[in-house]
Amino acid sequence: MLLEAKPAKLIGYLLLAAYLFFCYLMVEITLQYIPINTDVAFLRIKQDYVGFMHYRLAFFIHALSAIFVLPAGFTQFSDQIRSNYPALHKYAGWFYVVITLLLAAPTGFVIGLYANGGLSSQIAFCLLAVVWFYFTAKAVFSIKKRNFTAHRRWMIRSFALALSAITLRAWKYVLVALFHPKPMDVYILVAWLGWVLNLIVAEFIIQKKRTV
Amino acid sequence: MKMKLTKPLLVLSLGFAMSCGNPQSGETPADTTAQDSLAQAVTESPTAPTADKNPDGIGGLYVGAFDAVEYNEKKKPSYNNKITVSIDSVLAGTLYGHSIVAGNMRPFTGAAKQEGKVYTVTVKEPGDDQYDGSFEFKIYSDLDSITGTWTANKKSLAVTKRQYALSKKEFKYDPNLELPDFLPRNELYSEKNMPEEEYGNYEAMTDDVLKVNASKVLLKKSDVENMHKGDLEVIRNSIYARHGYSFKNRRMRYVFDSSVDWYIPLYTDVRDKLTEVERKNADLLKRYEAHAAKYYDAYGR
Fold first, then answer.
1. Can you tell me the distance from the alpha carbon of A126 to that of A108, in angstroms, rounded to the nearest whole number?
2. ipTM
């Protein structure tokens, strides 16, 4: 038992380190836009749209709010935090939910309407925003009804989609390094790959918990 | 760049002063177009002196490969650049001209000895540029061609001697000129691409490079957003190539000097010659190139 527990713990720490590393990368990406700048990074190839007030507003609200979802969401799956510091779990949870439902998901939908790569990636990103909103809202309603099991499941799904910020960029990095695809080809691909696979993994985790 | 233009200008105005005595001899109407484009190339002035300017019709642009014959392999020589030799005027046995190669425009003067249809020429570049040297060549007025050698002043250069066989060409800007069909899958030079390196770092052009003509059509975002950086670069630089821009940059020189038949290096700056469509397209292409360079293989979008 003791021998089995150790590698599990090690994997846990490795996952935590990887997560912190990716969060750091995301912070770096976000900081490119501060102070507010429409001629850097991703926005350099969105010049057709940065003229629209609603696009600019949506983009900056999305980038500057969604970054907080990553640390807020992560702590919620720790058993220790939930049982030892229930207040922290509750407040961090509200923080995650409010940012997602009021800021990050709706603005994600607006940006998704203008996604690079045409209809396929537009549908991918808009659908992601809608499903993310829906899962998160479901998680709120279920905890209001004190249905902890449902709350847990919806939150696993919601956070899996929040993680798409990290995974879609990681997929892009890997695919480019391996196959040198054309920029929009890879963009369209990861627009789907980045969150659909996460959702499949989330369902596996939910199924596993169910059988345990 | 402006500095380099002043010397040929001086040569021409000198030629003008000396030829004032006997105007309008020796020029035929057939020569006018070549002379006009030449005059623009050198001085931007609409009128050029007439007398002795073009004896036997040897004046004009001669274009071809400038091949290294003596070189130091360790210094990464550029083996075959494309050169334009411009014969500007011949006055009392002295030939005035200039050459444009690898983004470097240099005047030269020296003796020209005529024997029948052949001129034997020995000319020197001014000597105040580290790449200056001297040319020895023969102009075959009946064949419209030049053959000869060039020897560097400085013996420590990567290339100290080159040879060339050039043929007379006329330069005319034409937006309809297209890149050759065989460009896709040709390698793009980069400092990182060592010859012994594995396939992994090899960068080549793709079919996309032939998809659009950026001198003809105003490009949209959707035309360029799915292209690799190398293709974007070649498409943008083909705009400059059509205007006769002589590339300093080795990566583009290797494409245009060796593979593009119609390309004539003639100017070291063509910015003010671009059409409105070309200017807009160059900006758009440049934007996507810069984005690709910074973000294509980075963690992010």
1. 7
2. 0.85
pLDDT band at A4 (very low <50, low <70, confident <90, very high): low
Question: Is B178 a domain residue?
Answer: no
CA atoms within 13 A on the CB side of A92: 19
| Average pLDDT rounded to a whole number, residues B172-181 | 97
A48, A169, A182 ranked by CB distance to B301: nearest? A169
Q: How many CB pairs under 8 A join A and B?
A: 51
B88 with B226, same domain: the answer is: no
Whether A170 has its CB under 8 Å from any CB of chain B: the answer is: yes
**DSSP symbols for B18-52:** HHTTSTT-S--GGGHHHHHHHHHHHT--S----TT
* Boundary of a domain, candidates B169, B190, B208: B169
CA distance A9 to chain B (A): 28
Structural domain including B252 reads: 199-295
Domain annotation covers residue B192: no
Tell whether B165 and B204 lie within a shared domain.
no
Query: Which 3-state string (H, E, C) describes B69-119?
Result: EEECHHHCCCCEEEEEEEEEEEECCEEEEEEEECCEEEEEEEEEEEECCEE
Q: Is A182 on the interface with B (CB under 8 A)?
A: yes
Q: Is residue B6 situated within a structural domain?
A: yes
- Chain B contact for A42 (CB, 8 A cutoff): yes
Q: Report domain extents, chain A.
A: 40-211
Q: How far is A57 from chain B, CA to nearest CA, in Å?
A: 19
Which residues in chain A have Cβ-Cβ distances shorter than 8 Å to B288?
45
CA distance B237 to chain A (A): 20
